[in-house]
Amino acid sequence: MKKSLVVIMLGIFISVVATAGVFDFLFKKGNSKKRIEVTLRGSTTVLPIGMAVTEQFSKENKRSRVSVSGGGSSTGIKALLDGSVDIAEASRAMKSKEYDIAKSKGMKIKEIVVAFDGIAIVVNPSNGVTALTKEQVKKIYKGEITNWKEVGGPDKAIVAVGRDTASGTREAFDHLVMDKEEPATGVLELASNNAVLDDVENTKGGIGYIGLGYVNHQVKALTINGIKPTFDTVKNKTYPVSRNLYWYTTEDKINNVNGVKQLIDYLLGEKGQAIVKSQGFVPVK
Length: 285
Description:
The chain has eleven helices and eleven strands. The longest helix is centred in the N-terminal third of the chain and has 28 residues, at 2-29. The chain has helices at 2-29, 47-60, 73-82, 96-104, 134-142, 168-176, 193-201, 231-235, 251-256, 260-268, 270-278, and strands spanning 36-42, 64-69, 87-90, 109-123, 131-132, 159-163, 188-190, 206-211, 220-221, 223-224, 242-250. Strands 1, 2, 3, 4, 6, 7, 8, 9 and 11 form a nine-stranded mixed sheet that branches. Strands 5-10 form a two-stranded parallel sheet. It is α/β, with parallel strands linked by helices. It starts with a helix and ends in a 7-residue tail after the last helix. The protein has two domains: 36-116 and 244-278, D-Maltodextrin-Binding Protein, domain 2; 117-242, Periplasmic binding protein-like II (D-Maltodextrin-Binding Protein, domain 2).
């Protein structure tokens, strides 16, 4: 009887040890079993890419939870530097002062070019103007050209709309078109590409600027310096208002946050770059 009890107890002990070993393998050593949790925030221009890529990535990686939000490039970069997100989406390059903040915190920033974009200058579809020079666009936003008849259009006041100061598209426009000169005080500042689209669509004298992926029937994209904003002209950099789109993260997050490297690799891979193109932007590969 005693011998049988010892045998039973020994069997239970072996079973518990074996089970513990299985659990250790599955949950401690099996990285593939870890839940992927990644947060992204930033540019409203890059937002459609981020949302579409993470949606497909999550479908293919069932144990993943990826959250994406907008707010502007500056907002996303600040959140990365604050440590509140894993990836910042940006439609402009990080500034030297932002790199200085990262350095002061011991962060090693990783810059990833995820797509190419052209900032399309758009007008109301009823406007007869089809082309402008970059200099004319600058003068419009500086308030030096105020009526469409001055550039071959109808006798109608120009209503210029742009983006707010948190926008990477605004930063790129200021650099590529305005030569860092301030726009006129009358330029309406809006918070997103969609807001610019809606405003220009509903204002016959309106002009605005948006990412290439946002151009649709609501507005008419103008030829600038004789070059139309298209996939080819953006890719070969002949369109004069072309730029890169970025994801920013840190070496620490790539190495230690499960899912960050996987998500970046997915975006830069064949499937991810196909999604970039489907969103109206130019793939980097």
